[in-house]
């Protein structure tokens, strides 16, 4: 429709000819710069990056209206030629909008689509969260390692019913971590020429300058491996009758699975690791950072555990309703250090009109979730970690309404994330006392409450002191672990 394209783009800074605003896009903490631009240009604005329109949303109401209500037309993902050559178009987070995308979402929704559907995975979650305490206490200087190991272990446990080996490096975690590094590499903006000049993907692999094609073939082998090895494990376990409940086992129970369905099961399952392990780990690490800086929060959380659960056992999901303060701590963790600060960009599949502006086909849309979560009109003293903002009769807006993204692309792992984060935090509160680490002169070190860069970010590395909260913790932990065996 020609009349649409005569409408103006959303407002934004004037760019240079050809390159537009490319050099205005900051390499680091883009969400902070985008929020500042929002002060000048408003809740919806646009920039031009190498000929492509980017729409940046700095107002939650606009994001909800545009992305939640516009259904399928704004639910595509950007074209990623190098990642596609490496086989990553088969994973959900980078798949284009279409039949395969809808099929994956249907399968995932069927198994983990509601809070109630997570119940069958509670034993796995409980086990891994208790193992987390063990992993932390075995090596209290490396809380980061224990959180990373646990997040990966939880995802593999729920996706495939696979329990990682505790000693040394687990072979499946090794494959997954190596492959995820390759994923980051092949999706790095500007690294591969084929992303700028997609037509060169057609040159034969033996030609000079075609190194990227040989690398892509190697990366594709890894992604195949990462999808196939664990699925074969589930099939073997099912054949032996020893399969634990899992996402894959649930779907493989179906009779007469077509080849196409098998591929959908395999690649939807693969999508869990990258999107699920990297995210929950950041939330749990943020807890350790937050209570170093806000010891009074830990004190209150400890007091809640003592009064509701006591010291004779570790808390479980059955206690969730009776622990409102811990619930508020979890919400505040999602808010304070946003781990997907610009969500994941959506791509417009056709020309759209919004409030008299044109959003042309191919536009990338970024929702500045970081800004929504630090809006002083919505959250009082937004940079302060204060769970009490979510307690009482008039709580501030629940961040879990929107930290999981928007519309048809909203995180399909929301309930899995919710269950994993909560159980990890509640066991941590019950089991551990976290304090600031001391420097060589004995002075407490103040960790910096900030994150790395990227699509999914995590707290900057920091040190803290960790010890069991009371003398019975180790016994309770061991008893619990034995009861799972
Ligand atoms: C704290 C935890 C998590 C947060 C904050 C989070 C957040 C997000 C966000 C913002 C998106 C993009 C949504 C959009 O494009 O509008 C997303 C997508 C996704 N998430 Fe999560 N997520 C979390 C945990 C998980 C877990 C545990 C899983 C495991 C199944 C998961 C699986 C996915 C997948 C597969 C996608 C891609 C969906 C698509 O492109 O259609 N996430 N997540």
UniProtKB/TrEMBL annotation:
InterPro entries: Cyt_P450, Cyt_P450_CS, Cyt_P450_E_grp-I, Cyt_P450_sf, Cytochrome_P450_fung. Keywords: Heme, Iron, Metal-binding, Monooxygenase, Oxidoreductase, Signal. Its cofactor is heme. One of its GO terms (molecular function) is monooxygenase activity. It comes from the Eukaryota. Pathway: Secondary metabolite biosynthesis. Heme binds at residue 411. The keyword Metal-binding applies. Belongs to the cytochrome P450 family. This is Cytochrome P450. It comes from Neolentinus lepideus HHB14362 ss-1. The lineage of its organism: Eukaryota, Fungi, Dikarya, Basidiomycota, Agaricomycotina.
């Amino acid at each position: 429709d020609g009349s649409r394209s005569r409408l103006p783009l959303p407002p934004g800074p004037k760019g240079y000819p050809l390159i537009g605003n490319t050099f205005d896009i900051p390499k680091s903490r883009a969400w902070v710069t985008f929020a500042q631009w929002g002060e000048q240009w408003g809740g919806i604005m646009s920039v031009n990056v190498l000929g492509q329109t980017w729409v940046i949303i700095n107002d939650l109401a606009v994001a909800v209206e545009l992305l939640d209500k516009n259904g399928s037309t704004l639910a595509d993902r950007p074209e990623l030629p190098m990642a596609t050559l490496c086989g990553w178009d088969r994973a959900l987070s980078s798949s284009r909008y279409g039949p395969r995308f809808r099929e994956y979402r249907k399968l995932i929704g069927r198994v983990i689509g509601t809070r109630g559907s997570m119940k069958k995975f509670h034993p796995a979650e409980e086990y891994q969260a208790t193992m987390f305490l063990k992993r932390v206490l075995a090596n209290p200087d490396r809380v980061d390692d224990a959180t990373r190991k646990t997040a990966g272990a939880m995802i593999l446990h729920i996706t495939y019913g696979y329990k990682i080996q505790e000693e040394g490096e687990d072979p499946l975690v090794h494959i997954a971590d190596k492959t995820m590094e390759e994923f980051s590499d092949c999706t790095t903006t500007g690294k591969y020429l084929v992303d700028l000049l997609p037509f060169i993907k057609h040159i034969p692999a033996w030609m000079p300058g075609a190194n990227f094609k040989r690398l892509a073939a190697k990366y594709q082998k890894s992604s195949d491996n990462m999808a196939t090895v664990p699925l074969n494990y589930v099939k073997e376990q099912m054949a032996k009758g020893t399969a634990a409940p899992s996402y894959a086992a649930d779907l493989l129970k179906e009779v007469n699975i077509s080849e196409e369905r098998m591929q959908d099961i395999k690649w939807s399952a693969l999508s869990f690791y990258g999107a699920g392990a990297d995210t929950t780990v950041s939330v749990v690490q943020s807890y350790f950072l937050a209570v170093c800086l806000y010891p009074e929060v830990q004190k209150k959380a400890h007091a809640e555990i003592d009064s509701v659960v006591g010291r004779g056992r570790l808390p479980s999901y059955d206690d969730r309703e009776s622990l409102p303060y811990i619930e508020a701590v979890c919400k505040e963790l999602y808010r304070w250090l946003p781990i997907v600060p610009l969500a994941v960009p959506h791509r417009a599949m056709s020309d759209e009109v919004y409030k008299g502006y044109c959003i042309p086909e191919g536009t990338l849309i970024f929702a500045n979730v970081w800004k929504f979560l630090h809006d002083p009109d919505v959250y009082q003293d937004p940079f302060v970690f204060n769970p009490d903002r979510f307690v009482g009769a008039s709580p501030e807006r629940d961040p879990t309404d929107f930290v999981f993204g928007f519309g048809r692309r909203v995180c399909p792992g929301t309930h899995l994330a919710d269950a994993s984060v909560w159980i990890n935090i509640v066991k941590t509160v019950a089991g551990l006392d976290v304090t600031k680490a001391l420097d060589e002169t004995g002075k407490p070190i103040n960790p910096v409450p900030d994150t790395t860069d990227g699509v999914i970010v995590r707290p900057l590395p920091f040190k803290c002191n960790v010890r069991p909260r009371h003398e019975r913790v180790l016994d309770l932990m061991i008893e619990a672990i034995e009861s799972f065996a």
